[in-house]
Amino acid sequence: MRLKILLKIGSKVITLQFLQFFKSPFLVVVSEVVVVIVVVVVVVVVAVVEVVVVVVVVVVVVVGVVIVLVAVGAVLVIIVIVVVVVVVVVVVVVVVVVVAVVIVMVAVGAVVVKVVVVVVVVVVVVVVAEVIALFLMRIVRNKSHTSLSNAKLISTRDVPRACQDCVLDTFFRTPKMSTYLVAVAVSEYHNISAQTKDGKLIRIFTPENRIDQAEYTLNTTVKLFNYFKDFFFVEQPLTKYDVVAVSNHPGGMENWGLIFVVDFAILNCAPARNCELTDILHELMAHEVAHQWFGNLVTMKWWDDIWLNEGFTTYITNIAWTFLDNSTSEVSRGNTNVCKKMVDAPGSSE
């Protein structure tokens, strides 16, 4: 089953194909049912024709023999021949009918088995889908663009049937994740990269003319991944994590492995620590990176528990914030104090 989403970038149309792990079995079963019906009709028609032909031939032969025998006066022989012929005709008819029935039963039985298998598979998929979701992404794009998704890129190949300058990007299958975390990005952005202590690839994607402004964000992001990995004693399953600068974005979105962050917050800070946006950068990036553990790796069962995602992330964000910068903004201090009061409140250990 394929879901195609068309994204128009300038004058280019990019087709995104979301591939699930199984094609719809219903169309297969329907086509096989049609084939079985055709087979049944053909078998029945052939059986009827065979019976009619056999009966006609036998009748013609018997009539001829009887005429001859009557002419010579062999009445007893005529009776015996008629009985034998009747028995033969009955046997032939029974054999033809049995063979036809067997063929029909085998054909119908195969479809019934497949229908049962399909039903079982669908039930299993529905049940499992309540717990896990795996995504395998393929993106058709223009050669001048770059495509990103949650997982790492596997391969790129030409697809001349799509368009002359198109290529197909195939990505690794994602880990178990919620559907709201699925993301893609197609752009002409450039990137700078670095690695964490455990070898995770961290990349910052920005417009080419602003790539020199992303160095501080890259270093901050690497520090945060190293910090949270040591803090939680839990390693992230993905091998790469991208941060994409997005204009007109309300803030940040923690898509697993593909974080979207508003551009002004992460591209206007030089390494100088007196940048007025440093506080925003620290808090925003700490929040989105913390979500890779609280919210992505561990996700609430339903939206009425979204406060768990945001509550734990906010608390951990402020711990990481003080790690990045010992001076604390008014907003951060307020969040930390509220969280600390909640944790230290009587009965909170329960």
TrEMBL record:
GO terms for molecular function: metalloaminopeptidase activity; peptide binding; zinc ion binding. Pfam families: Peptidase_M1. GO terms for biological process: peptide catabolic process; proteolysis. It comes from the Eukaryota. Keywords: Aminopeptidase, Hydrolase, Membrane, Metal-binding, Metalloprotease, Protease, Transmembrane, Transmembrane helix, Zinc. Residues 216-320 form the Peptidase M1 membrane alanine aminopeptidase domain. The chain crosses the membrane at residues 21-45, 51-72, 79-109, 115-137. One of its GO terms (cellular component) is extracellular space. Gene3D superfamilies: Neutral Protease Domain 2 (1.10.390.10), tricorn interacting facor f3 domain (2.60.40.1730). Its cofactor is Zn(2+). PANTHER family: AMINOPEPTIDASE, PROTEASE M1 ZINC METALLOPROTEASE. Belongs to the peptidase M1 family. This is Aminopeptidase. It comes from Elysia marginata.
